[in-house]
Amino acid sequence: MKVSDILRSKGADVATIGSSATLAEAAQVLSVRKIGALVVSDDGATIAGIISERDIVGQLAEQGATALGTQVLTAMTAEVHTCGCDDHIEDLMRRMTDHRIRHLPVTDDGALVGVVSIGDVVKRRVGELETVANQLTDYIQTGR
């Protein structure tokens, strides 16, 4: 199973925010869209960073409520791990675990084309395992 399979079923919509937006604006977008991270991009195609709920909470813990007025640029993770459409889900699981990340932007020729979350990966993997279990059960019951 590949990243392209996940994007085909979930869609390639990517929630982005500009680097000059405030943390309050980022928190609002995260809340409205019910997601855990935004790709920071000033043009919608180039990845400048990623900002997650965890990043915002960290800034609030350090600075208090005044952190909400600071720019996303100051709190984002600038070193972003990405994946490609042809990457295998097993590789994503390993990468997400090794780097303790929950979101991987998907790029194609350097351009942003989607985002895969740990939830997307788990959902797909559980679906695969359910299919195998059903096939085994069918085989045991019918002998075919």
Blueprint (SSEs and pairs):
Elements (H helix, E strand, L loop, with lengths): L2 H8 L5 E2 L5 H11 L3 E4 L8 E4 H11 L8 H4 L7 E2 L4 H11 L3 E6 L2 E7 H25 L2
Parallel strand pairs: 1-2, 4-5
Antiparallel strand pairs: 2-3, 5-6
> How far apart are the first and last residues' alpha carbons, in Å?
25 Å
What's the SSE pattern?
HEHEEHHEHEEH
Mean pLDDT: 91
* CATH classification, class level: Alpha Beta
Looking at the structure, the CATH topology is CBS-domain
Class based on secondary structure composition and strand pairing: alpha/beta
Strand order of the largest sheet: 1-2-3
User: Judging from the principal axes of the Cα atoms, what is the shape?
Assistant: elongated
CATH superfamily: CBS-domain
**Gyration radius over CA:** 18 Å
Helix fraction by DSSP (H/I, runs of at least 4): 40-55%
The CATH architecture name reads: Roll
Strand content: 15-25%
Note the main sheet.
3 strands, mixed
Number of domains: 1
Low-confidence stretches: none
How many helices?
A: 6
**What is the number of strand segments?**
6
